[in-house]
Amino acid sequence: MNDEPRGFKEFEGFNRFLQKTDAFKNFAESLSKQVTEIEKAVVRFDFGDIIEIVQKNLDAAAPAYKDALLELGNHGWYISQDMTTSATLQLAKGFKQGNPNADIALEKFFEDKLDEIESNLVGKFPDRAKAIAAAFRAHRQGEYFLSIPVLLAQADGICIEIAKESLFMRSKTKNDGSPQTADYVVRLGASSFMDALLSPLSTNLPIAFSQKQRAPGFTYLNRHVVMHGESSDYGTKTNSLKAISLLNYVAEMLT
């Protein structure tokens, strides 16, 4: 998590803009205070204090981070653990401002990491290796109509395998359209920051919208229209990369 992938260079101009926003200011100030408090705790050799300080400041940053993750999710993208918090905030701001570089940067990021993502997925889920390899092979060959359904199916399969809940079925306990994986997030009883990190699993996003929720002219990648043959134009490179980002996110967050 050191150097930013080349795809994020388009966002250098957002740094100045972000520094003027309240969300970023609050996050930066919180981080600065956190570093100072940690330095004091280290001098006292108080490891318990360090953990408490980090958790407190992560929780303070959670609302802005959650908002950023859901903004990406609303455009069909899901984060990787190799993306820094600042990059995520920049990308979200890019989408809010209608900047096309947000999509371009994410496409570049995930395309550059295809081999690494595939290797990690196969390593974590050897029983799914053949399906995963077939999907990535189809993507590299430009067969996006073939890669996308398999990628979406594997993402849901991993959710069911680990969380015992589906990403594309409605929650059994909530009446707000949330996916079943929201029940899993609730059961975890995680911290505010972890709850923010898992928010794409607990929020109804376009990938799982029902027929009633898809307004006329809906063009986002959606599991239902793909798997039930309602769309004949979903097979694009961008959509395939979005499906890869979802599968990668699910695998990283749930393991």
Write a structural description.
With 255 residues, the protein is an all-alpha fold. The protein folds into 2 domains: 1-110, no CATH class; 113-255, no CATH class. The protein is 64% helix and 0% strand. The two termini are 18 Å apart. The relative contact order is 0.13.
Q: What is the C-alpha radius of gyration, as a whole number of Å?
A: 19 Å
Number of domains: 2
SSE string, helix = H, strand = E?
A: HHHHHHHHHHHHH
Structural class: mainly alpha
Helix content: 55-70%
Q: Provide the low-confidence segments as ranges.
A: 1-7, 10-21
Number of discrete helical segments? 13
Counting DSSP E segments of at least 2 residues, the number of strands comes to 0
Q: End-to-end distance, in Å?
A: 18 Å
What percent strand? Answer: under 5%
Largest sheet: none
Q: What is the general shape? A: globular
Please tell me the overall pLDDT.
Answer: 84
List its salient traits.
about 260 residues, 13 helices
